[in-house]
Amino acid sequence: MQSIDEASAAFARVEDWIADYFRDTRRYPVLSRSRPGDLVAALPTHAPQDGEPFDAIFDDFERLIIPGITHWNHPRFFAYFAISSGRIAVLAEALAAALDVNAMLWRTSPAATELEDVTLDWLRLMLGLPDAFHGIVYDTASIGGFTALAAARESLGLDIRARGMAGRADLPALRVYLSPHTHSHIEKGAIALGVGRDNVVTIPADDDFAMIPAALAQAIDDDLAAGMRPMCAVATVGTTSTTSTDPVAQLREITAARNVWLHVDAAYGGPAAILPEFRWLLDGAHAADSIVVNPHKWMFVPVDLSVLYVRDLELLRRTFSLIPDILATPETDGRNYMDYGLQLGRRFRALKLWFVLRSYGVSGIQERLRAHIALAQELAGWIAREPGWEILAPHPLSVVCFRHVPAGARDEVAIDDHNLAIVDIINASGEAFMSSTRLLGRVVLRIAIGNERTTRDDVALVWDLLRAAAARTPAA
Amino acid sequence: MQSIDEASAAFARVEDWIADYFRDTRRYPVLSRSRPGDLVAALPTHAPQDGEPFDAIFDDFERLIIPGITHWNHPRFFAYFAISSGRIAVLAEALAAALDVNAMLWRTSPAATELEDVTLDWLRLMLGLPDAFHGIVYDTASIGGFTALAAARESLGLDIRARGMAGRADLPALRVYLSPHTHSHIEKGAIALGVGRDNVVTIPADDDFAMIPAALAQAIDDDLAAGMRPMCAVATVGTTSTTSTDPVAQLREITAARNVWLHVDAAYGGPAAILPEFRWLLDGAHAADSIVVNPHKWMFVPVDLSVLYVRDLELLRRTFSLIPDILATPETDGRNYMDYGLQLGRRFRALKLWFVLRSYGVSGIQERLRAHIALAQELAGWIAREPGWEILAPHPLSVVCFRHVPAGARDEVAIDDHNLAIVDIINASGEAFMSSTRLLGRVVLRIAIGNERTTRDDVALVWDLLRAAAARTPAA
């Protein structure tokens, strides 16, 4: 791809392919039908010695890669959290790759740093968060949550940055509190930070899958009495399994009274606060120490782009900053975001967020979120009215949890197997892709809506498939 | 950007812009001339209420964003490590954004997982590494290095994953060993993992800026005698300041005899081993526990794509794996890379590496690396022959460290200031961008070559600028 003509032809071919893909993603099976090893077997064992023409590479992309893709951008991808890439964001990612900026220092691209400041302040205002919060872009909520936990650890004043945690007689065990529905990245972060799984305390949830505040207060008090050091409690706005929301304001009261960091994971649920009618979702978060929101989940920005808002930016800097001579910069430069996290290298991610926010406008995003929530409510209505089907969790947002119970079935294990068989049938059909999870030990089916091209017909189709699958599946 | 026509016009405009950018990047000042706050002041304080047409957004991209860009893709970007984005990789990033795949589980895109396996095995063979190594893609070397350190900690068998590090009387201090030239991400990782800066032991380097093996042996033995626990030693192949390479084979002997993890940071230098004449660079690394190589540095893949090769993949899984119900998968699926790191979300990064490896071929990459090394050697020759200039470090690869000493100058502080003034003149010119660093306390000028479009004229131009700047700058 050395000549201008070849590059131009390549660009045109990719453009056509992408246009076609967005026009008719439904032609593909949502869940790839590959078997393990298929692609490995289809490709050579060595890189080519000499360069190949673009068309040969792209032919293989279409012939070998695409059949191995699970189509996250398919309107009937209902698994995990459904996402979608706004078309304009594809162009932003192409531009970011062409510029190939590393936004580690302000001077290594002022516009990347400042566009991050501007777009995250726009987003903060859209979410109704107070201006005490400063946002920084990270790749994933896993890293944002880890970063918040690291800052929480630093805030304890135990000199862990300098002295570490091992071999110190003066350190108490550090404790992290979460609910059975908190996302697993928090526990992973606690493991990495040397807190240890045994010190990750699971606070029980109520019937609506929300953390019980009194239980948190009790756990913290017990730990303090036992000489341990509470480090961080995590509240979730929109849990992964059911989209339940913890009572953040109450959890804040309890943690504030005990001087414990409160981190709010609003990765999925946060963007719903862009809707005035869901603004309350983040009310309690206004007093939190840190909040994660993922534009790459439900804001039409392709992976990866996760935002961490913190109140104490200087603490975050103290937690991570290390400046070797080669990265020293004048005092008069702007802020260097390499000082605020584990990663030195930082892609120009704000560009795609800026493109999407401007192209859709606040009203365009609101419209899409409302449509998804309405579709989920409509689906929940269908399920609730259908004999043999039951809704298993509140569904205020765009996810519905439910199951099928064959007439007369009593044995819970058999009912679980029956529902797992239903999911397998749906996913093998290629027509839709959905997840199952477990609530209170029972298998739960789960439909998540969040793709901007998902229509009522798509949801009706998966509902038809579900009923047909239930009828075909041996009863318990 | 709702209609097909608008999307097509937008794509065409971006295509033209990128083609133009690659054709004539030299028209831009390399280092942005923005002042802090310029972009923030130029943009509105709120997101637009209603969507805007693509052309308005793109006009602002050209008018407001581009002047704030420091052009990493400019052929006269000689700072840090010079990089460049292969043109074909831009298309791969656009396709990855359109597919919007999250390669967290094998089933959430078999092709993304397996293309990662295939391309990293290709790369392993290109580097001449034994098949005991298994590669995984991460975003940055910071994360790859952190992951290696986390696995090293887990390998100690101290039950840190479950019990954590704080409040345990049974844990010795954990020790990490590096040289004064090791990249700062290792120390940052050690801080995050609870090792603590005080337990990061700097082993002295020799006159060629390579770690002194006997000093490492002594430090480990002293720590063992003091009851501390050596956790990891880090050897670098191509350090950031001078591209020096530590004596990896000797460091491996010492660490192996003492059962200490050896991590090799070959982020920049590793790719040079693709050249038969530099294959020796990784010889000692064959027996290491882990190795980081960055295709996004010197392999024409845009940021971000860093590779960690490990020998004990199962250990890495044990270090990080946590599987919530919603992410449970059948045993018959392929490998789930979410289990091997901190991040759940994983972009489809292997696609751009595959495009570049196939488009360039091994020979195309070799050709580019050889050209860069030859340019650096030529520049070093010019500097060495010019009165008043001195080379300050060996320069086997594509980076040259040097300084100017005005006739009769004796005061080292004044000579430092003189050289910093030279860098400022170069960088303010917009014609080139370079770094300074410090070696043995003295300011050192540094030219890094690594952009595939850099020509001999570009290097000659910066050499002219350097001499002119030295002449203009008040002598010490």
Could you outline the blueprint of secondary structure elements for this entry?
The structure is a homodimer of 476-residue chains.
Chain A: H1 4-23, H2 38-42, H3 54-65, H4 87-99, H5 110-127, E1 134-138, H6 141-154, H7 160-163, E2 174-178, H8 184-192, E3 200-202, H9 213-225, E4 229-236, H10 248-257, E5 261-265, E6 290-293, H11 295-298, E7 306-310, H12 313-320, H13 350-385, E8 389-391, E9 399-404, H14 412-429, E10 435-439, E11 442-448, H15 456-472
Parallel strand pairs in A: 2-3, 2-4, 4-5, 5-6
Antiparallel strand pairs in A: 1-7, 6-7, 8-9, 9-11, 10-11
Helix pairs in contact in A: 4-13, 5-13, 6-8, 6-12, 9-10, 13-15, 14-15
